[in-house]
Design brief:
The complex is a heterodimer. By secondary structure, chain A is mainly beta. Chain A has nine helices and 64 strands. In chain A, a hairpin with a 5-residue loop joins strand 57 and strand 58. Helices cover about 55% and strands about 5% of the residues of chain B. Classes of the chains: A mainly beta, B mainly alpha.
């Protein structure tokens, strides 16, 4: 670090020689079309960092250093103009619309802005205003349906839950398949915030099957502070970010005081509020004709099996609303006898239990733009209450960014974001007594859940409808809390020095640092933890990236332009977690580790990693129309053995703007560009995968505590090598009729080889898995985006359509020698697997037993378990989106349709709902029984078996119990295709407010996730998951996704 | 200017090169796992604690020990979720059993042995051998041929071949002889021994008692070998000490709280899926002309204040409705075993008991493998079993209201039981008596009881009412599906060695029809 300090000092000294002779220039910038003044136009003295922006009346004043004679005027959507000063003190100038949009600027790797036409790979952009229009609390969801080839899976309607994002399909067998998030040049951690010790154990942290979804790291990025998002889709785009960018990069630029087209000189204040209301998008289709019980009978005594089928939580009991009177959990007890009360249905019992979720987001931003400096200070308060009672999520974000030209050549900038995310209770998911929605899927249908609010009887015992399996749902939500308290800080500081017009350099250090405290508790009387439970996990994460980059840009002769960047990066990452659990509590209702009745369990875990890199990139331009770009990076990673910790990977792209090269001036084809590229990305592994160790167990806690040691199940490998991604892509951009229609087409082909995976091995070796380099996954596909402006009228009515489409073909080409399956996760008897010859993410489990013709074989009238096989796959065949925008005199209306076609989902709501007699389909055959579809076996005297149509009648209860048991998942796999109305917005912008202190007002009504327009999955939203990891395609009784409706107000002062 | 610029660039490059050069030097430090101990820090005492706890946990594990062992041998039956009781086993449990014996305690005990060899510590070597043999015997008795000679070699062989059960048995029996020789009472002390509190004499007794168990189990295949080896042990107690009382039992005294809790107690805190089998209650109480008083400790009184067992292998629905209400009107596993009533001490996690050894000796004497009187050993087994429960048994009989006088002891209860003609010694029916009483004495040691039942066929059991195994009680556990995915060619050889289909009904090598 000392070397860096010296370098800063060096930079400062070099910057001291700023010239003193100056002159002042002023003027007005107007729109060439109608002569109206243009506020917010950026004016820079060419060759310096000196500049300003025009005020509300389009006026500017600028001090020009001596020796400079040219100004650059630029404004979003207009052609940039360069104007010689030639001694003038007043310069009035007009700007023209950039109709063809050729000079569109995008942010690329390392945060360098580039003309889009010079880029040889697929990049798609989204402006911050887009995000602000229909706010999502999780930034990842905002991209859904808008960017070609980006697949978003929003896990559930639970507050604070995670979302998964994958670009161009999964490439890594066991590792991360999500893109790298980069904010202002600094990588941001997007891991799940998990709780627990990760080792399994008792209580609330049992396995991956259940737990609490605590969100993904990128969700800490505040949408209100985002200027723009660039999605760099392939490894071509990302070679310069190194390993983690192999899955693409989500490049986020935060708002600052400069650049923004609407920012005036001086102070600007913006205030916005968004308030939305959430209700479940889709609830299961329950039956309401039969209540709790089995074999058609029920009578309540103690709710634990003491009465007639009163321990059962299923709904195979007597018919409801038929005048029947039965003793029930809520029947009055008179003289010690539980009197019979009417046996009636409560069709809306689940709907009534759920509350309306409310999300409010308020942002206040102060932006200051001055001649040589600018800043932005922003505060955002997000407050969410969930659809489940007593669940919430709160986030407060303070962001500050500033930039100043210390001299003509020296610019110093930085930004800092502080995020505080807290929750008093997050809901649980999965097969867990803590997931109240699990209870609603078993759901004894006649129970009036919202009637259970008082969960404590006068004598202190618990009041519930059942005492065998479930907690009172209000008890779970009010007592068994999962809390969250996270502080996060990320930001960067950057010093940029411009040696000459052609040569500049910067040094930038960025940090991402959080501490995350998660606690879980169960109160006395909990089903799984009668004596209560408490655990807490404190995680701290810190990543520091320091980059130094030298940039050289020079024209070579008349035709050529050369641009070379040379840089280095040092990345250090630390993670630490301490976990403690009190498996039983000594005193009720006190949740601290010290209150443990039994020996405290605790663990701590450290992880550290360092990567050093040197990299370069160069671009050679010919006539500003033909571009050759090349990059190279060498990483040194601490996680690999010495022989292979240094690895190099290159990329190149070639792009040609044919319309410029051929000097075409065609009214039909306004712009045509073709591009081709190839890239390699190397990557490392996690720390500590090389050498064998002995772990510490929880010990033997007798009077003298014995510690214990054990051999971990995973076998390390001291000969690991870096894994590699090889990516090829080619594409074309075409614009027709003066930009009225634009088309972007990309084809790509990627191989991920030599993967570092913990391959399962025979446990008889002493280990259950072993780290090796093996396996290959291929992804190839196309991405198409189409934009059109069907109507563009002089009267101000505009209609724009954006279409995107992406089809990815994914194949697991090989695993390790002799390994036929790689398991990503097991959920009951369904496995999610990588199987060679199949796309990644096979849903694997037992089918029904079938005859040679494929008919289901019924034995004793019911289907039975057959062979294990691939039942489906979670990856969609293609995804797409259609966005329509209408503008008319201040009004704007937009709607977004999101399409996922193909792929499968395992629906546990269907399996449990069928088994338990809770859902509509279980009404079939309630009276008179069911003859299962399929055949039965007939054995002749010689023992030969033939198949005849099944004619055995069984009760609906017997049939559903057999056909929808957990051990035969085949009956609950469905085509996950869907079409959703993702977003609708109607807004109005008040303009020309005159002397009113408020300069701009925009109001809008917004709806998100409004309707499922098409789906064949019964009962649930097919877009579902419960982590943002690689195990997807599972619905497991999560809280249904939310339909959100509300309004936005934006005020500018 | 130009020179300044070049100096600037050079300075940056120099700084970078310096940093790169100096920083990769730390890489090996950075990548050294601070959370765990290196192999050089292996601590035999800490490994030993873990091996004992993990092995006992596995044997007592609910899905294996209780649902497959106890239910299949009809010590217990299920009242809810009756799948296992109907021989519908879970593949995930079989996979977990394999992993959790081989990769958990199996690998730890291998590491313990290797560490002991490196440190020339004979007593740790001996203890490690005894435990490794115990683990190996359970795995092979479950499945038949399994990887053994090339198992536990880590990176050297992740596709270990399967070995015949005969070769495994001959080796592990020899290993126990080695262990007895290695274990030296005046030798280097051991620590971390939560089974025998570092008492080497007890380890020697366990080694030899276990050797007798395994010799008897294979005796049908090589009677001459069994005769020689068993006699050698029994005739030289100075060299080959064996269990002499319940004090010597290989039983882990659990501590009663997670994670050092007895798996049964932990399970009963949230589950209530098991009942005592009707086979037990019929034999010991309902159909017996004279009470076998152990019923009082094996079974709790049901809501009708009687000992009523649950028939094995009903459907869940039948079980729930059994006797009016299966949950209420059948007996739970006795409180001695579940320790659910406040103040009850934790039950031991039994690996091998004195009573079992007496029945081993009784059978060996009965078959003339050893000299000695089968009748004496037989009665010693019954008395030993009653004594194992001691005062708790007397209290349980008293609580149920059947204690004739306050002076009764477990010995007098045993005498009262033996007075029954049915269970009095009868050489003409010796094998059935010995096997049946061993079955009764090893209650809740489901795996070992089931292994012995497979070998002897006694007591005669009626298969599960709604069993799903062609009307048969399983005599084997199929290989884990994980092996089919991870070690397929070795598995295929294993099935060939097995000599029959890989299902529940193929008998293992020692299990003669």
């Amino acid at each position: 670090m000392r070397k860096f300090t010296l370098f800063f000092v060096f930079l400062l000294f070099v910057g001291m020689h700023a010239a003193l002779a100056q002159m002042e220039v002023k003027g007005t910038v107007t729109d060439a079309k109608d002569g109206t003044p243009l506020p917010g136009v950026s004016i820079v003295v060419k060759g310096t960092l000196t500049g300003t922006v025009t005020d509300i009346n389009g006026k500017f004043v600028l001090t020009v250093p001596a020796g400079y004679n040219e100004l650059i005027f630029s404004f979003v959507g207009m052609l940039t103009r360069e104007e010689k000063i030639d001694g003038r003190a007043v310069i009035n100038i007009t700007l023209e619309d950039d109709v063809v949009g050729l000079n569109e600027v995008v942010v690329t790797a390392l945060g360098i802005s580039r003309e889009k036409k010079s880029i040889g790979y697929a990049v798609q952009d989204m402006k911050g205003e887009e995000l602000a229009k229909a706010k999502e609390t999780n930034i990842v969801n905002s991209l859904s349906g808008k960017i070609a080839g980006v697949q978003i899976t929003n896990s559930s309607g639970a507050v604070g839950s995670s979302s998964r994002i994958v670009i161009r399909g999964a490439g890594s067998l066991g590792g991360n398949n999500q893109p790298l998030f980069v904010v202002d040049g600094i990588p941001i951690n997007n891991d799940d915030f998990a709780a627990g010790d990760g080792l399994g154990g008792k209580g609330r942290v049992v396995s991956k099957n259940n737990g609490t979804n605590r969100g993904n790291g990128a969700a800490d990025i505040n949408p209100d502070d985002i200027e723009s998002i660039s999605v760099l889709k392939g490894p071509n785009a990302a070679a310069l970010y190194g390993s983690r960018a192999a899955n693409g990069v989500i490049l986020i630029t935060t708002k600052s005081g400069s650049l923004s087209g609407t920012t005036r000189k001086g102070l600007n204040i913006e205030l916005s509020n968004s308030t939305t209301f959430e209700r479940p998008l889709r609830l299961p289709d329950y039956q309401n004709e039969y209540g709790q019980g089995a074999e058609g009978v029920f009578s309540y005594v103690d709710g634990a099996g003491g009465g007639t089928k009163d321990g059962v939580d299923e709904s195979w009991g007597p018919k409801l609303d038929a005048g029947l009177m039965l003793p029930q959990y809520d029947s009055p007890i008179v003289d010690g006898v539980r009197t019979a009360t009417p046996w009636i249905s409560h069709p809306d019992n689940i709907k009534d239990f759920l509350e309306t979720g409310v999300t409010t987001t308020t942002n206040l931003a102060i932006v200051g733009g001055y001649t040589d400096a600018n800043f932005r200070l922003s505060y955002t308060n997000m407050n969410q209450t969930g659809m489940l009672p007593n669940t919430d999520y709160k986030k407060n974000t303070l962001a500050f960014g500033a930039s100043a030209n210390a001299t003509d050549k020296l610019n110093i900038s930085g930004s800092v974001n502080y995020v505080s995310a807290t929750s008093d209770n997050l809901p649980a998911y999965g097969y867990d007594a803590q997931n109240v929605f699990q209870q609603f899927i078993w759901a004894s249908r006649q129970v009036n859940y919202s009637d259970l609010k008082n969960y404590t009887n006068p004598d202190g015992s618990k009041y519930n409808w059942n005492y065998n399996y479930h907690n009172n749902p209000y008890f779970t939500l009010n007592e068994n809390l999962n809390t969250l308290d996270r502080d996060r800080l990320f930001g960067n500081a950057k010093v940029l020095y411009k040696f000459t017009e052609n040569l500049s350099a910067f040094v930038r250090t960025g940090i991402d640092n959080y501490s995350n405290l998660s606690t879980e508790r169960a109160a006395y009387g909990d089903m799984d933890n009668p004596n209560g439970f408490y655990d807490e996990a404190l995680s701290t994460f810190k990543e520091i990236n320091t980059d130094a980059l030298i940039m050289f840009d020079k024209g070579l002769g008349e035709y050529f332009d050369l641009n070379v960047n040379l840089g280095g990066n040092i990345m250090n990452q630390n993670f630490h977690r301490t976990f403690g659990a009190a498996d039983e509590l000594a005193v009720a209702d006190v949740y601290t580790l010290a209150n443990s009745k039994v020996a405290l369990r605790s663990t701590s875990f450290f992880r550290e990693k360092s990567i050093h890199s040197l990299y370069f990139s160069g671009q050679l331009g010919f006539k500003n129309a033909l571009f050759l770009e090349f990059t190279g990076r060498n990483d040194w990673s601490s996680t690999l053995p010495k022989e292979s910790w240094s690895y190099f990977y290159p990329s190149f792209t070639l792009s040609a703007v044919i319309t410029d090269l051929a000097k075409m001036d065609n009214k039909v084809l306004s712009y045509a560009k073709v591009r081709v590229g190839y890239a390699v990305v190397g990557s490392d592994t996690d720390p500590y995968n090389l050498l064998p160790v002995l772990s510490f167990g929880s010990g033997w806690n007798s009077a003298t505590k014995y510690l214990n040691q054990y051999v971990p199940d995973g076998l390390p490998n001291p000969e690991l090598k870096p894994q590699k991604v090889y990516g090829f892509e080619t594409g074309a951009e075409l614009k027709f009729f003066l930009n009225r229609i634009s088309l972007d087409f990309t084809y790509y082909n990627q191989q991920t080889k030599n993967q570092i995976i913990a391959i399962p091995v025979s446990a008889s070796s002493g280990y259950t898995s072993k780290f090796i380099n093996a396996g290959q996954i291929d992804n190839s596909g196309i991405e198409i985006t189409l934009g059109a402006s069907p109507v563009k009228s002089d009267k101000g009515f505009n209609w724009d359509i954006y279409l995107n489409f992406a089809k990815n073909k994914n194949e697991v080409v090989s695993l390790a020698e002799g390994v036929e399956q790689y398991e990503l996760g097991t959920y009951w008897d369904l496995k999610v697997m990588a199987i060679p010859g199949q796309p990644y993410g096979s849903l694997y489990g037992a089918d029904y037993l079938r005859d040679p013709d494929g008919n289901i074989i019924n034995r004793n009238g019911v289907p039975v378990k057959g062979d294990l096989k691939i039942l489906g796959n979670y990856q969609p065949d293609w995804i797409g989106g259609i966005n329509n925008e209408f503008n008319f005199k201040g009004f704007d209306l937009s709607f977004l349709i999101d399409v996922h076609m193909g792929g499968d989902v395992y629906c546990m709501t269907n399996a449990w709902g069928r088994y338990a007699g809770a859902i509509e389909e279980t009404l079939i055959g309630r009276e008179g029984g069911i003859v299962g579809i399929g055949v039965k076996e007939v054995e002749d005297a010689d023992g030969n078996i033939t198949y005849v149509p099944n004619d055995v009648v069984v009760t609906a209860e017997e049939y559903n119990h057999a056909a929808f048991t957990n051990s035969i998942p085949a009956g609950s796999i469905f085509d996950a295709s869907y079409v959703k109305l993702r977003e609708v917005r109607l807004g109005y912008t008040f303009k020309n407010l005159g002397n009113f202190p408020i300069k701009g007002i925009n109001i809008s009504i917004v709806g998100r996730n409004l309707a499922i327009l098409y789906s064949t999955v019964p009962h649930v939203d097919p877009e579902t998951s419960f982590t943002n990891g690689n195990v997807q395609g599972l619905e497991f009784g999560q809280l249904p996704s939310a339909r959100s409706l509300g309004f936005n107000i934006n005020l500018k002062f | 200017m130009k020179i300044k610029r070049i100096v600037g660039i050079a300075a940056i490059l120099a700084a970078f090169l310096f940093i790169f050069d100096s920083c990769t030097k730390n890489f090996e430090d950075i990548n050294t796992d601070p959370n765990n101990a290196g192999l050089d820090k292996a601590a035999p005492d800490m490994l030993l604690t873990n091996v004992i706890e993990m092995t006992t946990d596995r044997v007592q594990e609910i899905f294996l020990g209780e649902e497959m062992g106890n239910c299949w041998v009809q010590h217990e039956a299920k009242v809810q979720y009756t799948d296992e009781d109907r021989y519908i086993y879970r593949t995930s449990v079989v996979n977990a059993t394999w992993s959790n014996f081989y990769a958990g305690p199996g690998m730890c005990v291998t590491t313990l042995y290797n560490t002991a060899v490196a440190r020339q510590h004979d007593n740790y070597k001996g203890v490690a051998l005894v435990l490794k043999v115990y683990i190996t015997s359970v795995i092979t008795d479950l499945h038949g041929p399994v990887p053994y000679f090339n198992a536990w070699t880590g990176a050297l062989n992740t596709l270990p071949p399967y070995d015949s059960q005969e070769s495994i048995y001959r080796d592990i029996i020899a290993k126990l002889d080695t262990a007895n020789t290695l274990l030296t009472i005046d030798g280097d002390a051991i620590a971390g021994d939560i089974l025998f509190n570092n008492d080497i004499t007890k380890w020697k007794k366990f080694a030899n008692s276990l050797r007798l168990r395994l010799l008897l189990r294979m005796s049908g295949r090589d009677e001459a070998f069994a005769t020689t080896e068993m006699s050698k042990i029994v005739n030289d107690p100075a060299t080959y000490p064996i269990f002499e009382s319940n004090e010597d039992n290989a039983a882990l005294q659990y501590l009663g709280s997670f994670p050092n809790n007895h798996p049964l107690n932990e399970n009963r805190k949230t589950r209530d899926d098991h009942r005592v089998s009707k086979t037990i209650t019929d034999m010991m109480w309902a159909l017996s002309p004279k009470a076998d008083w152990r019923i009082a400790i094996y079974a709790d009184l049901d809501d009708n204040d009687t000992w009523e067992g649950m028939p094995n292998g009903l459907t869940s629905s039948q079980a729930a409705s059994y006797n009016g209400n299966g949950i209420k009107y059948t007996s739970k596993l006795g409180n001695y075993f579940t320790a659910m009533a406040a103040g009850t001490p934790m039950p031991p996690g039994m690996l091998m008991s004195y009573a079992e050894l007496q029945f081993i000796l009784a059978e060996a004497a009965f078959k003339n493998y050893i000299s000695g009187d089968a009748e004496t050993f037989y009665y010693a087994g019954i008395y030993g079993s009653y004594a194992q429960f001691g005062d708790a048994l007397v209290a349980a009989v008293d609580n149920a209201g059947y204690l004739a006088s306050p002076e009764w002891t477990s010995d007098s209860l045993a005498a009262d039981f033996i007075a029954n003609d049915i269970y009095g010694w009868d050489a003409g029916n010796g094998m059935q008596l010995i096997a049946t009483q061993r079955w009764a004495a090893t209650f809740d040691q489901g795996l070992q009881a089931w292994f012995e039942w497979r070998r002897t066929g006694y007591p005669v059991l009626t298969p599960a009412a709604e069993g799903m195994n062609d009307g048969k009680i399983p005599v084997r556990v199929p290989y884990p599906t994980d092996e089919a995915a991870r070690n397929p060619s070795s598995l295929a050889e294993g099935v060939t060695l097995l000599g029959g289909p890989d299902d529940l009904n193929t008998r293992v090598w020692w299990d003669l029809d």
